[in-house]
Specification:
The chain is of the alpha/beta class. It is built from seven helices and ten strands. Residues 221-230 have low confidence and may be disordered.
Length: 230
């Protein structure tokens, strides 16, 4: 599902260059659940954005579902994301003027689904919000907004779902419920799940953990030899 080869990412800072990621090699198979963990500023969110095609690396190659997204134009990457990728963000990213139902319907309508309302209603019922269909984000709690975001992310049955701190803004009980939901949908739909998280319990529930330290990625705390995939 995901293959990364010799990925390095740098950003220009004044007269110098900051290297955020260095020589990353990894593979993630279809249906896996993977947590990306590390200290703040270690490059976790940068890596997630690169894997999702939201940015392009300075060097190296990224393949998503067999497609070389690191060599694509922004329009080509956007088209691929619309067809195969779902997102769950810490800040929810719901459209404030739309109801919960309309937020979940939106990607279905953009995909040309004629039964968008029925599908969105079923998804919201699946995440426990069947009675909140007509509520706008400001009428929902943080946990409810995150569940709407998860329903929206799974609406188009993506092959891969990226989540950036999906429980970061939630209390422990609500975070546990969101974690349960993500893992259940991962199992039931076979969707590959890749997430950045500081939540140790959520990370432990994933099949694999990738650790970032000083821009280098290792699995289970073991730094691989140069050029060896983790």
């Amino acid at each position: 599902m995901l293959k990364v080869t010799d990925l390095t990412h740098e950003v220009a800072l004044g007269s110098g260059t900051l290297r955020i990621l260095h020589n990353v090699n990894l593979s993630i198979g279809a249906g896996e659940s993977v947590a990306i963990v590390g200290r703040s500023g270690s490059g976790k969110t940068t890596l997630l954005g690169l894997l999702a095609g939201l940015d392009t690396p300075t060097h190296g190659r990224i393949e998503l579902d067999g497609q070389p997204i690191s060599q694509m134009s922004e329009d080509e990457r956007a088209s691929l994301r619309a067809r195969r990728v779902g997102f769950v963000f810490q800040s929810f990213q719901l459209l404030p003027a739309l109801t919960a139902l309309e937020n979940v319907m939106l990607p279905l309508e953009l995909a040309g689904q004629t039964d968008a309302s029925d599908q969105a209603t079923e998804l919201l019922r699946r995440v426990g919000l069947g009675e909140r269909l007509q509520h706008t984000p400001r009428q929902l709690s943080g946990g409810e907004q995150q569940r709407v975001a998860i329903a929206r992310a799974f609406a188009a049955h993506p092959k891969i779902l990226f989540a950036d701190e999906p429980t970061g803004n939630l209390d422990n009980n609500t975070g546990q419920a969101v974690s349960d939901l993500l893992m259940a949908l991962n199992r039931e739909q076979g969707t590959t799940l890749v997430m950045v998280t500081h939540d140790e319990h959520l990370a432990a529930r994933c099949g694999r953990q990738l650790h970032i330290e000083a821009g280098e990625v290792s699995e289970n705390g073991v730094v691989p030899a140069q050029g060896v995939a983790v």
